[in-house]
């Protein structure tokens, strides 16, 4: 049975159970819903929950673990003899899977009967040609053992699917019967349903947390692997970034400092652009703008946040870079020769700053608005001007939130990739000149992992070490932001 | 009976909030060195009228004021008058204590700093100390002037706000239900304070408590539905009101 139909049947059963449960509850109360402990819908929902949830969980787990088990089973059937030189058993197993899928397609298309597909022998038929006729392309001629394994794979999958359907359906029916039987005037259906809802909420929360931990671990293992090949001291304190893709990275110099410097420098320029502009925009919008202006201008500024960063990158590459060269480059408007190419810290920083404006302005605007009107009245009532009120009362009261907004923008800046790739260049260097090309940690992660680098070499694994470093830095920033916001949050309440 | 000179003189004041006519034809003369109480049911316009006296209504976009309010014979709604300067002369204490999220010292020093009342730190210290003493908060606060003002209790916070208003040396002090968020003990302290303040200022207080009006004020104005119904000596208003509505209100039949 197809999993889709299985799930559909279970859901239909559960929906039927909902109606039945509701009806039964009303019957047991002889039509007077007030006698029931819970509202009739809760009885229905309880039946729905007990019918659908356990069986769907079993089906889901089954679908995850069945292929793993079958794969382990079948791979034992493959003798080492047919594993090609330098290849792995995994590659043969993927042939087995493809062949098994191919046989399924052939049966569905009518090229083979179900019986043929199960009993066909590679010695007698050219299975590759037969499958090619129905559009399934196999890489090489099919070995007898592979075909046998594929057939075993099919057989076990079919048995497994049947068992899964049986288990799922019987569990659904059992849940339906049991929950229906329990319905009575005194049964506390609402409590049962709410326990179920609570479990759902806890599940949602833990998925988010577990994913974070999962990401961290996937980074961590590869990072540890990297430090096994490459000395940690050279990574953290090295001042040269010169990966050598030949020779498995043996001659590479992988010092993180130039990348961290580039990240820091570009982020700094971006924040120098974004913080004043964003903050002033927020002050204007929240304190001076009329409601009409505000209702138009705020969404317009927030549009900036919706532009994909690759578009900003193009803007940096095609517009801002040449513009800056025209001013600061040779034969430029200022007559100075500071800038040799369009890609530079300044280019990326300026464009990134523009990207960050809405982060700073929108959050700060909300925070400034949240400062109670009583604060402003108190200050104005003492004869302070509007601007004195903003500078001395409103902004200090909103400061923790504004700092939080700035730190959020900072972590965005540190994690930004596309604008750097297109706007700042790819040269890793430690330099103070903001008109030089530099690069950041994120841009280097991309360039280390694209291309055909061997994943066990230092030049590829360094990407994970870089990722971990970045993760720790941004995590630190976020923790700092949280700490600041918490420490000062309740001051005006 | 009282011989004090007129501090604030309002003539035919109208206030509109958008379409709503909130204050209708209010004319009243408020005396110097006197406590004047505004009483009346909620929404009768007493707070609105109070906020006209220091032009706090300017901060509300839809509010519009017509008529004439004179402070020392000068029209405060004249084009030449800067509301900021006016508010330095007419201080205000709000219904809910609203200390700034700053230290006690900085709360009180806020106005004097803005208006440049102190030449140096020592003078500023003196101003802060005097203001806190007059607000009967000095003994409780002198050892923790650098602690945040928001950490004080409700009654202390309100006295801090009064100290803050007093520190700018206003001529008139407007109080919008200053005791509504306070317990009876804190209320008694604030009332005692108001009584002292009238030595130097003209105090206008909006209150919902008839007992409070009777206790602290010399003059009482009764507002009803945006009209000033009756204005006179507090004793006369509470014992022998001229208007039927005033009598109904103070005896608890309306409001």
Structural topology:
The complex is a heterodimer of chains A (493) and B (255).
Chain A: H1 3-28, H2 40-75, H3 89-109, H4 114-119, H5 127-133, H6 144-182, H7 189-229, H8 232-237, E1 241-242, E2 253-254, H9 257-288, H10 291-306, H11 309-328, H12 345-370, H13 373-381, H14 386-415, H15 418-423, H16 441-449, H17 458-488
Antiparallel strand pairs in A: 1-2
Helix pairs in contact in A: 1-2, 1-6, 2-6, 2-7, 3-6, 7-17, 9-12, 9-14, 10-12, 11-12, 12-14, 13-14, 14-17, 16-17
Chain B: E1 6-17, E2 20-31, E3 35-39, H1 46-53, E4 63-71, E5 74-75, H2 83-89, E6 90-93, H3 104-115, H4 121-134, H5 138-141, H6 154-167, E7 172-176, H7 184-197, E8 202-206, H8 210-216, E9 219-224, E10 227-233, H9 234-239, H10 244-250
Parallel strand pairs in B: 3-8, 3-9, 6-7, 7-8
Antiparallel strand pairs in B: 1-2, 1-4, 4-5, 9-10
Q: Overview of this structure, please?
A:
The complex is a heterodimer of chains A (493) and B (255). By secondary structure, chain A is mainly α. In chain A, α1 runs antiparallel to α2, α14 (386-415) runs antiparallel to α17 (458-488) and α16 packs antiparallel against α17. Helices cover 73% and strands 1% of the residues of chain A. In chain A, strands 1-2 form a two-stranded antiparallel sheet. Chain A folds into two domains: 3-187, no CATH class; 241-492, MetI-like (MetI-like fold), CATH 1.10.3720. With 255 residues, chain B is an alpha/beta fold. Chain B has a single domain (6-250), classed as 3-Layer(aba) Sandwich (Rossmann fold). Helix content of chain B is 36%, strand content 26%. In chain B, β9 and β10 form a beta hairpin. The longest helix of chain B has 14 residues, at 121-134. Chain B is globular and about 55 Å long. Chain B starts with 5 loop residues before the first strand and ends in a 5-residue tail after the last helix. The relative contact order of chain B is 0.18. The mean pLDDT of chain B is 89. Classes of the chains: A mainly alpha (493), B alpha/beta (255). The interface between A and B is medium-sized, with 23 and 30 residues.
């Amino acid at each position: 049975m197809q999993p889709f139909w299985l799930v559909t049947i279970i859901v239909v059963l559960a929906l039927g159970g909902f109606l039945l449960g509701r009806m039964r509850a009303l019957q047991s109360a002889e039509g007077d819903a007030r006698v029931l402990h819970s509202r009739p819908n809760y009885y229905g929902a309880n039946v729905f929950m007990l019918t659908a949830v356990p069986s769907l969980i079993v089906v889901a787990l089954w679908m995850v673990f069945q292929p793993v088990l079958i794969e382990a089973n079948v791979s034992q059937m493959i003798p080492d003899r047919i594993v090609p030189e330098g290849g792995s058993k995994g590659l043969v197993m993927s042939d087995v899977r493809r062949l098994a899928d191919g046989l399924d397609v052939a049966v569905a298309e009518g090229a083979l009967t179900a019986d043929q597909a199960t009993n066909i022998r590679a010695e007698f038929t050219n299975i590759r040609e037969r499958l090619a006729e129905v559009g399934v392309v196999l890489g090489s001629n099919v070995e007898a053992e592979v075909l046998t394994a594929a057939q075993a794979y099919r057989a076990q999958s079919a048995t497994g699917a049947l068992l899964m359907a049986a288990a799922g359906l019987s569990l659904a029916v059992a849940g339906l019967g049991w929950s229906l039987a329990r319905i009575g005037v005194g049964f506390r259906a609402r409590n049962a349903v709410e326990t179920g809802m609570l479990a759902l909420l806890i599940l949602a929360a833990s998925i988010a947390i577990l994913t974070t931990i999962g990401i961290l671990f996937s980074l961590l293992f590869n990072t540890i692997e990297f430090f096994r090949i490459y000395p940690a001291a050279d990574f953290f304190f090295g001042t040269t970034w010169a990966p050598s893709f030949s020779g498995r990275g043996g001659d590479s110099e992988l010092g993180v400092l130039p990348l961290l410097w580039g990240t820091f420098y570009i982020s700094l320029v971006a924040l120098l652009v974004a913080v004043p502009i964003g903050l002033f925009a927020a002050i204007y919008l929240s304190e001076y703008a009329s409601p009409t202006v505000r209702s138009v201008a705020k969404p317009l500024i927030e549009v900036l946040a919706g532009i994909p960063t690759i578009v900003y990158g193009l803007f940096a590459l095609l517009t801002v870079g040449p513009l800056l060269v025209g001013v600061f480059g040779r034969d430029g408007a200022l007559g100075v020769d500071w800038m040799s190419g369009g890609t530079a810290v300044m280019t990326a920083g300026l464009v990134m700053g523009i990207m960050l404006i809405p982060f700073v302005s929108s959050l700060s605007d909300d925070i400034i608005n949240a400062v109670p009107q009583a604060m402003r009245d108190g200050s104005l009532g003492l004869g302070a001007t509007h601007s004195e009120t903003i500078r001395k009362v409103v902004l200090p009261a909103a400061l923790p939130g504004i700092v939080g907004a700035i730190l959020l923008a900072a972590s965005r800046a540190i994690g930004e990739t596309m604008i750097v790739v297109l706007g700042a260049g790819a040269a890793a260097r430690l330099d103070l000149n903001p008109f030089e090309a530099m690069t950041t940690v994120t841009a280097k992660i991309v360039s280390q992992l694209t291309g055909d680098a061997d994943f066990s070499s230092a030049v590829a694994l360094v990407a994970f070490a870089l990722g971990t470093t970045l993760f720790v830095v941004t995590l630190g920033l976020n923790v700092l932001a949280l700490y600041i916001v918490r420490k000062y949050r309740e001051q005006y309440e | 009976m009282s011989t004090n000179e007129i501090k604030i003189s309002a003539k035919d004041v109208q206030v509109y909030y958008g379409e709503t006519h909130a204050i209708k034809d209010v004319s009243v003369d408020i005396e110097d060195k006197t406590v004047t109480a505004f009483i009346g049911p909620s929404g009768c316009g007493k707070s609105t009228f109070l906020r006209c006296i220091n032009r706090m209504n300017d901060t509300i976009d839809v509010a519009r004021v017509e008529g004439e309010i004179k402070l020392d014979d000068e029209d405060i709604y004249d084009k030449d008058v800067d509301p900021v300067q006016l508010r330095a002369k007419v201080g205000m204490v709000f219904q809910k204590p609203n200390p700034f999220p700053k230290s006690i010292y900085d709360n009180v020093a806020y106005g004097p700093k803005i208006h440049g009342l102190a030449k140096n730190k020592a003078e500023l210290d003196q101003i802060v100390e005097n203001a806190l003493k007059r607000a009967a908060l000095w003994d409780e606060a002198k050892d923790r002037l650098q602690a945040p003002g928001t950490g004080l209790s409700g009654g202390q916070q309100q006295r801090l706000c009064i100290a803050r208003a007093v520190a700018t040396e206003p001529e008139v002090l407007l109080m919008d239900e200053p005791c509504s968020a306070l317990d009876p003990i804190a209320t008694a302290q604030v009332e005692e304070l108001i009584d002292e303040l009238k030595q130097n200022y003209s105090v206008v207080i909006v209150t919902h408590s008839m007992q409070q009006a009777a206790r602290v004020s010399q003059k009482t104005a009764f507002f009803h539905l945006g009209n000033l119904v009756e204005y006179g000596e507090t004793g006369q208003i509470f014992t022998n009101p001229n208007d039927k509505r005033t009598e109904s209100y103070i005896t608890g039949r309306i409001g």
